[in-house]
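Shipment paperwork, digital attachment
Item: protein structure file
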Amino acid sequence: MRKLAMILLLGACSGAPEGDLCERHFEPYPDLIGQRVRTEQNAALLDAMEPYAEGDFAEA
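Attachment content:
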């Protein structure tokens, strides 16, 4: 039991991979909006989602 605890402790204290957690694991949602036909009702939504389609997730 002590060996298992020591192995878990050493494994937990090992160095973390480069970058922060968001950079390592974030995957953007697929663009399901960019292919919609522009209408008067959805024009504001399409304008707001344009940066997202270009990959500018901070702006979106």
